[in-house]
Design brief:
The protein has 158 residues and is mainly alpha-helical. The protein has helices spanning 6-13, 18-31, 33-45, 49-65, 72-93, 96-112, 121-137, 143-157. The chain has a domain at 56-157. It is built from eight helices and no strands.
Length: 158
């Protein structure tokens, strides 16, 4: 079965009653954890972006605290998992400022992590790629945010 386009889905949803749309949303939420998480964000978190960012940061702190530091293999796996999780939360938000703030926070945590990521080329490259990505995203933000995030980025480059 080929999936319909977003435009086709939108057109079809316009013909459904409010109750039918509600039932479709609930059924969609049952099938995938990500659908449920996105619906949770849209219903409860979207109004308070600052609170959402803080919640994600707390989860990231917990994930960093649980990293097995016995070998760089486990560290790399855990760091990639953390980055995947952050990217998922960024997709839910869709806000560019939230994206930059969460990625900067990830880089700050990674930079302060012990053992140092500088001793492992894969981790160091991952860190550098994120900094480059942030550097490209900052000019799309409001001027005040550009300045604030630019200062944080400069600190992370040293």
């Amino acid at each position: 079965m080929k999936a319909a386009t977003v435009a086709q889905l939108k057109k079809e949803l316009q013909f459904k009653s409010q109750d039918e749309v509600l039932q479709l949303c609930l059924r969609l939420a049952r099938f995938k954890k990500e659908n449920k998480e996105l619906l949770t964000y849209l219903l409860f978190e979207a109004d308070n972006e600052e609170g959402y960012i803080e919640t994600v940061k707390e989860e990231v702190d917990g994930m960093f605290a649980e990293i097995n530091i016995k070998s760089y293999f486990y560290i790399k796996k855990s760091v990639r998992k953390i980055l995947r999780t952050i990217k998922k939360y960024i997709r839910y938000s869709g806000n560019k400022a939230t994206e930059v703030e969460l990625l900067l926070y990830f880089c700050q945590k990674l930079n302060a992590f012990t053992p140092s990521i500088r001793k492992n080329m894969a981790l160091h490259n991952l860190y550098s790629r994120q900094l480059d990505y942030i550097r490209k995203k900052i000019p799309t933000l409001h001027e005040d945010l550009q300045h604030d995030y630019g200062l944080i980025l400069q600190q992370l480059n040293h």
